[in-house]
């Protein structure tokens, strides 16, 4: 432990030499990072032990958050801030000639997630601990997180990611808490003591080893646990080819699936899902029994939240444990299970709703399949009683139909709460996608609009802006982000707006410097930084953005005196490796960027930067430098978005559609705080249901649209005819599923308006400040507070033993 700078320095030097086996002069930044990391983890450990002890003795209900992804990024600096030792450490290191930023560079991003869903889970962990709530994360320790993206010749190339290369300083492996997970084999039933019992025979076992990662709350002594499971060969491999068995076992936690919207349909993915659920439930039940719980009261003391349907097997798995191990009746087990599990839906895209073919599922998980079958039978019987004769409805709602298991249906039937992630998304679920279920279970549906932790996305990512805010309104906003609203008192304060402007300028210069170092491109830091960062997906419409840039280029070609305020368009996006169309769009962005950079007139106004390998730590550099936030998904398709919230909190102004949480941003900042364009969700859904949209009409009747679309393939772009024909086809012959051409004109108009407002400095800065001032609502502290109160029924358990 260390309490001041000198004590820290001594302890650090000693630790550094002990760990590296080198004299100080010989050590390198990675040695420094490892030494500091271990010191910080030890610093946390007393509070961690005490927090766990509090939870063990507490009678309070506990929640377990099961998620197939946790996109943590780097955690060193966040830990320093939350533990309140940031200044001591930074200054101590600085005395030794070590910049903290240099150490931070050494920490690999823990990229155990694809995008929004995984980052949400990480933000939730921070808020749970900061609110002193008894909430534990359960996930998978993938040996390789999301692939590393390289751009070669404008194409995305995927490389395996190696975050564990130098070991993971934050984790603690707990061999004594390992559990065995059964796969394959067969089930035998017996009639014993007047009841039917089941045994799972000839199973192949896989050992699940927990690695615990501490999650420190903000200066409150609470340290929660994120438990990540790793698959290893069981010591009892039951007579077979040992090497093959070992390889297949370790494969379960080898890779994160690089996909966030399509069902991969891989048996390995199903293994991962059951592995996570079965290991987590074993540990949850053990902890509950150790707390001397009586199994019948389980649902009063434990809540299990499933983040999307990936962990939905928690439902049949809990049933299995209650019936096979605790000998409860089906009815008793169902009563407990359906009062314990709650479910968050993250998408209405039908291709992203998970389904598993029975022929894959049944042999891999024989006992679980039996239970799912019985859940389905009983569920269908209930439906039959409610809707006698309505076969069509029952078929639509069944959990198993046409030899497919529908995971979302299982999730809704077996949980007591189903929430969407933004107001609009929840309404669409209730009124459309899940309408049958909403009619049957109206009481289960509720909304919890997503949030982001302001401690990472503002306090940590933007220390300059954080100080400006604290100087103006005090630092209570860190505990109560709603207090940011007090900034609205400065909307017309010229001197304050000036300072805000200077801070943004400084971060833009920093980012420009980084781009120069990494990509040898000089970008103009006085231009508008127009930022589009998120996974590459057709519905997120990076295509609309790049087509509009081509249109701006055309305007310059037509009229060499046409001038607009210079813009730097910044993209960051990974495409799923098998997502051909998304990869074409990455190539298109690069091809257009190259074309424009060769035109001496156009490049004065337009620059395009594609940042390689978009990830959490890169987001933390881009977001504070952003002027404009592109949130231009086809309305109704983005469930919430959280990138929109991060950018808003850092004073970027949104150019967006009325989709996901953009709608709620609009409600907070009003018409003068955001640039809204395009079709509404209702209009999109009406077109989809009733037809009436013909993209060819937009193509043929709007000269400027026809021109950019033709330019994809007419030789304007090198190799366009081969490269971009699939994009051309999707827009014209494929009837433009995502309404890119339909929204084109209104997008161009709003972008022009945004450019004009940007030049009225005080008006723009005031708009920017308004976004910061009303961003407190989008803190995940608010979101988690609502989950805790309205779904989980949990209360804070302060760590009274905190040192
Ligand atoms: C926040 C975040 C996302 C989600 O962005 P959206 O714009 O909401 O899709 C994805 N990836 C990373 C690295 C993030 O930090």
From TrEMBL:
Entries under PANTHER family matching the protein: GLYCOGEN PHOSPHORYLASE (PTHR11468), GLYCOGEN PHOSPHORYLASE, LIVER FORM (PTHR11468:SF3)
Where is coiled-coil annotated?
A: none
A GO CC annotation given for this chain: cytoplasm
Q: What is this protein called?
A: Alpha-1,4 glucan phosphorylase
Give this protein's Gene Ontology molecular function annotations.
glycogen phosphorylase activity; pyridoxal phosphate binding
Reactions mediated catalytically:
[(1->4)-alpha-D-glucosyl](n) + phosphate = [(1->4)-alpha-D-glucosyl](n-1) + alpha-D-glucose 1-phosphate
Write down which residues bear the modification named N6-(pyridoxal phosphate)lysine: 646
Cofactor(s) the protein needs? pyridoxal 5'-phosphate
Q: What is its EC number?
A: 2.4.1.1
CDD domains given for it? GT35_Glycogen_Phosphorylase
* Presence of keyword Cytoplasm: yes
Q: Which InterPro entries match?
A: Glycg_phsphrylas, Glyco_trans_35, Pyridoxal_P_attach_site
Q: Provide an example Pfam family for this protein.
A: Phosphorylase
| Family designation | Belongs to the glycogen phosphorylase family.
Swiss-Prot/TrEMBL keywords: Allosteric enzyme, Carbohydrate metabolism, Cytoplasm, Glycosyltransferase, Pyridoxal phosphate, Transferase
Superkingdom, taxonomy of origin = Bacteria
Give the primary localization class: cytoplasm
Subcellular location(s): the record lists: Cytoplasm
An example GO BP is: glycogen catabolic process
> What is this protein's function per UniProt?
Allosteric enzyme that catalyzes the rate-limiting step in glycogen catabolism, the phosphorolytic cleavage of glycogen to produce glucose-1-phosphate, and plays a central role in maintaining cellular and organismal glucose homeostasis. Phosphorylase is an important allosteric enzyme in carbohydrate metabolism. Enzymes from different sources differ in their regulatory mechanisms and in their natural substrates. However, all known phosphorylases share catalytic and structural properties.
